[in-house]
């Protein structure tokens, strides 16, 4: 590294920064209007408004990456969903329930000016049951005079209330220090404890693509479709199912089975549920209704899984209903609409007839293998050396930036750091990704490539 002009500490730092596995998850929960979205904006350090002024406006995005004091984590914002037909308590409880389930730690936001309400108490009960570490945020303490309001919240029995003004930033640093103490280094509930345990699958897809039908089929039993409100009962949300002689854990099957009839906020609710399931899983099996046009909603779900860095399998369901013409157009659509996951293994199934169910497990295994692939540094650099000499970066401004060396900093998904002598253009980065995939496989997994440029 030194002879290439890189400081050894820079190199090590870059590798460490890129090398993290799945990040721990922080959920921010609380009643509407207590300031959850404002706080999330603060935590992720973004100026652009996540806060919407219009109530009931739905957002697709519910998870964000954040960093505090050099540690990275994910934040799940539950602020995008207003009161709906369920009534306020059930609404808040339902969204909190999913977020808490997927989280390693929770920030519970209370409006200190208002004090604890019955709805807040309902969330406290959920938090107790979940047993996850909680940081109590007494928000809207904009100045010293509000501190007394915050102190009242000791009554909630969740420990020290942290007086914060999400709007002005007051107290957020201290609160984030407490968050880091509460948050494990790695997402313990979903990864650390499960080594050697069953692999975790999230079966996701937009409503009516056939998720519960598929689950029933693979589990080999007719399940009861529970027509009840989410959040009113706490049945086990993960289910162990044996497939191909191996036991798998299907995460958040309660979310699949429950039918919650929502008017407002249904999209957001579904997004939150999907995001939570994806966070808990290692591999996402994304179900798509092959009989219908691939929709923006399908693409959003794909993006969610890819951005979360999960292994991905695409399952095109309802294959029994397809005629030849639809099959033809589907292929074209897959090329144009699902190009971002051209690397994902694909199965064409029918939850109704059972067609190709036996291909599901091999596809999942392929994707997990890709997700865990590690390329030895020697092999990677031999490959990079050949690639760079056969296909050099285009000359720019009289200079030719070169990839000097690289290393795989992490897996799950594979993360690479490349060290270069100058700025590497996006097109060349994509070319490198393509060639890496051709050479080493990585079927079914997103890969991350970061480039460090010599000063
Ligand atoms: P959410 O529904 O819990 O996500 O709440 P929002 O983040 O949308 O905030 C609701 C309202 O409270 C907005 O008008 C915010 O500007 C306001 N708000 C949020 N945090 C603070 C704060 O620390 N102090 C004050 N005074 N207002 C706040
Ligand atoms: P979910 O909302 O994704 O859980 O979807 P469901 O499993 O409830 O299925 C929605 C509808 O699609 C139901 O009427 C199912 O019977 C139907 N369906 C599911 N899978 C198939 C399939 O493979 N073929 C056909 N023809 N219909 C299916």
UniProtKB/TrEMBL annotation:
<dbReference type="Pfam" id="PF01926">
    <property type="entry name" value="MMR_HSR1"/>
</dbReference>
<comment type="similarity">
    <text>Belongs to the TRAFAC class TrmE-Era-EngA-EngB-Septin-like GTPase superfamily. EngA (Der) GTPase family.</text>
</comment>
<feature type="binding site">
    <location>
        <begin position="205"/>
        <end position="212"/>
    </location>
    <ligand>
        <name>GTP 2</name>
    </ligand>
</feature>
<dbReference type="InterPro" id="IPR003593">
    <property type="entry name" value="AAA+_ATPase"/>
</dbReference>
<dbReference type="InterPro" id="IPR005225">
    <property type="entry name" value="Small_GTP-bd"/>
</dbReference>
<dbReference type="InterPro" id="IPR016484">
    <property type="entry name" value="GTPase_Der"/>
</dbReference>
<dbReference type="InterPro" id="IPR031166">
    <property type="entry name" value="G_ENGA"/>
</dbReference>
<protein>
    <recommendedName>
        <fullName>GTPase Der</fullName>
    </recommendedName>
</protein>
<dbReference type="GO" id="GO:0042254">
    <property type="term" value="P:ribosome biogenesis"/>
</dbReference>
<dbReference type="InterPro" id="IPR015946">
    <property type="entry name" value="KH_dom-like_a/b"/>
</dbReference>
<keyword id="KW-0690">Ribosome biogenesis</keyword>
<feature type="binding site">
    <location>
        <begin position="30"/>
        <end position="37"/>
    </location>
    <ligand>
        <name>GTP 1</name>
    </ligand>
</feature>
<keyword id="KW-0547">Nucleotide-binding</keyword>
<feature type="binding site">
    <location>
        <begin position="77"/>
        <end position="81"/>
    </location>
    <ligand>
        <name>GTP 1</name>
    </ligand>
</feature>
<feature type="binding site">
    <location>
        <begin position="139"/>
        <end position="142"/>
    </location>
    <ligand>
        <name>GTP 1</name>
    </ligand>
</feature>
<feature type="binding site">
    <location>
        <begin position="317"/>
        <end position="320"/>
    </location>
    <ligand>
        <name>GTP 2</name>
    </ligand>
</feature>
<dbReference type="InterPro" id="IPR032859">
    <property type="entry name" value="KH_dom-like"/>
</dbReference>
<dbReference type="GO" id="GO:0043022">
    <property type="term" value="F:ribosome binding"/>
</dbReference>
<dbReference type="GO" id="GO:0005525">
    <property type="term" value="F:GTP binding"/>
</dbReference>
<keyword id="KW-0677">Repeat</keyword>
<comment type="function">
    <text>GTPase that plays an essential role in the late steps of ribosome biogenesis.</text>
</comment>
<dbReference type="InterPro" id="IPR006073">
    <property type="entry name" value="GTP-bd"/>
</dbReference>
<keyword id="KW-0342">GTP-binding</keyword>
<dbReference type="Pfam" id="PF14714">
    <property type="entry name" value="KH_dom-like"/>
</dbReference>
<feature type="domain" description="EngA-type G">
    <location>
        <begin position="199"/>
        <end position="372"/>
    </location>
</feature>
<feature type="binding site">
    <location>
        <begin position="252"/>
        <end position="256"/>
    </location>
    <ligand>
        <name>GTP 2</name>
    </ligand>
</feature>
<comment type="subunit">
    <text>Associates with the 50S ribosomal subunit.</text>
</comment>
<feature type="domain" description="EngA-type G">
    <location>
        <begin position="24"/>
        <end position="187"/>
    </location>
</feature>
<dbReference type="InterPro" id="IPR027417">
    <property type="entry name" value="P-loop_NTPase"/>
</dbReference>
């Amino acid at each position: 590294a030194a002879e290439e002009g890189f400081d050894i500490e820079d190199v090590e730092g870059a590798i460490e920064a890129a090398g993290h596995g799945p990040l721990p998850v922080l959920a921010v929960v609380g009643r509407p209007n207590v300031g959850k979205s404002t706080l999330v904006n603060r935590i992720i350090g973004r100026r652009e408004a996540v806060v919407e002024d219009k109530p009931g406006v739905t957002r697709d995005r519910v998870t964000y990456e954040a960093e505090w004091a050099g540690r990275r984590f994910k934040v799940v914002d539950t602020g995008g969903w207003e009161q709906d037909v369920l009534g306020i308590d059930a609404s808040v409880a339902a969204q909190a329930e999913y977020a808490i389930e997927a989280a390693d730690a929770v920030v519970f936001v209370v409006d200190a000016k208002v004090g604890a309400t019955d709805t807040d108490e309902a969330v406290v009960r959920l938090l107790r049951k979940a047993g996850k570490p909680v940081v109590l945020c007494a928000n809207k303490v904009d100045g010293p005079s509000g501190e007394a309001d915050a102190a009242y919240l000791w009554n909630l029995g969740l420990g020290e209330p942290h007086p914060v003004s999400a709007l002005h930033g007051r107290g957020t640093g201290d609160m984030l220090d407490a968050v880091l103490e509460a948050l494990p280094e790695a997402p313990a509930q979903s990864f650390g404890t499960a080594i050697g345990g069953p692999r975790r699958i999230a079966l996701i897809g937009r409503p009516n693509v056939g998720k519960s039908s598929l689950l029933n089929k693979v589990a080999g039993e007719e399940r009861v479709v529970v027509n009840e409100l989410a959040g009113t009962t706490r049945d086990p949300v993960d289910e162990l199912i044996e497939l191909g002689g191996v036991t798998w854990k299907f995460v958040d099957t309660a979310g699949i089975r429950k039918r919650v009839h929502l008017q407002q906020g249904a999209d957001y609710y579904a997004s939150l549920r999907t995001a939570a399931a994806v966070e808990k899983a290692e591999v996402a099996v994304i179900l798509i209704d092959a009989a219908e046009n691939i929709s923006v909603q399908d693409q959003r779900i794909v993006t969610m899984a890819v951005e979360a860095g999960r292994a991905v399998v695409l399952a095109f369901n309802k294959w029994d209903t397809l005629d030849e013409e639809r099959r033809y157009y589907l292929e074209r659509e897959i090329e144009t609409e699902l190009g971002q996951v051209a690397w994902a293994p694909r199965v064409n199934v029918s939850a109704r007839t059972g067609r190709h169910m036996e291909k599901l497990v091999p596809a999942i295994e392929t994707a997990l293998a890709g997700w865990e692939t590690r390329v030895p540094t020697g092999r990677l650099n031999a490959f990079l050396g050949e690639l760079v000499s056969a296909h050099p970066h285009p000359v720019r401004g009289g200079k030719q930036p070169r990839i000097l060396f690289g290393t795989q900093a992490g897996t799950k998904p594979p993360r690479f750091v490349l060290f270069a002598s100058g700025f590497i253009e996006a097109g060349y980065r994509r070319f490198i990704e393509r060639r890496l995939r051709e050479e080493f496989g990585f079927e079914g997994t997103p890969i991350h490539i970061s480039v460090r440029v010599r000063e």
